[in-house]
Amino acid sequence: MTEAVIVDAVRTPLAKGKPGGGAYSEIHPVDLHAVPLRALVERTGIDPAVIDDVISGAVGQVGEQSGNTARWALLAAGYPESVPGVTVDRQCGSSQQALHFAAQGVIAGAYDIAVASGVESMSRIPIGSQFAGKNFAGPTVTERYSPGLIPQGISAELIATKWGFSRSQLDDYAAESHQRAARAWNDGLFTAETVAVNHLDTDETIRPDTTTETLAGLRLAFQDDAWEGRFPQIDWKITAGNSSPVNDGAAALLITSREAAEQHGLRPRARVHSFAVAGDDPIMMLTGIIPATHKVLARAGLSIDDIDVFEVNEAFASVVLAWQAETGAPLSKVNINGGAIAIGHPLGGSGARLATTLLNTLEQTGGRYGLQVMCEAGGQANATIIERI
Question: What PANTHER family does the record tag this protein with (predicted)?
Fold first, then answer.
């Protein structure tokens, strides 16, 4: 069977996703997306004319991020007009799904060389812009989950309540994410995976001085009389401090067959070993990473103990802690250079960002297997295992 290998992966530093307040807020999302696409060519020396497809993730596919942003980004990056592009939406897992599609295309023989990428400009396309206040799930789904679906923050509260996490446990985890990410930047561990944009050369939302004590002073983010009436069991704990921020950012990976890599003088760094997607309860919503992890490990013929490094998207601290409780993965191997609570979560760009960090962390630690898993709106998850070469 043809193997899909990762030749290179690169990301922008992640910026604050505030209108007018972040380092990228004046950059069109197409031009932001073009940065890692251009960097792949510059770093590998590949002729972009040989790329069979650019598959990209974006969640807010509206306004400046609509109209198949992948196509416009590759043209903005200077790729030839002969290179096609397509934009996919699996919510927060969009660019991880792009990686799956690129690898599947190579394994199937449909592609020799593909790019998997993702972007989100949350400063210019605020979260939820694509819904425009509409019932996106429709009346039948609303009736099935009567009285209706809920925001992810309430799901995070339900998870914290079900697994019995205290506020201090959530804040401890969040503070450690900031401290790990700050150490990683200080130690130069993110240098190889990033390309500066507009003079921003570090992730903008990392706060090195974050402690459990400072986080304890933050107000609750989702407590509301209406939600308390519907979910009286919740003991409210979720704050902005133990949640991921909103961010702008982009990332891209070059995926080829081993044969194509050799033909073009490229060095494979890892192979895409196994991948899986899973669905789960759309009310709990963010727990899909648990069955997705079990599914991808079974498919790979590996156990949790075989994995050397984990990248688990930190949408909320409660999500990662629940996943850890169910899988038994040691937290010492999880997001060892910090996660989205500190680094940031640019929705459609996060899957490619995590994959980029996972690849580099495997190389830095000398590990063999890395597992990446991402919770997604609607109760889904992507899971990917890569093997360092």
Answer: ACETYL-COA C-ACYLTRANSFERASE (PTHR43365:SF1), BLR7806 PROTEIN (PTHR43365)
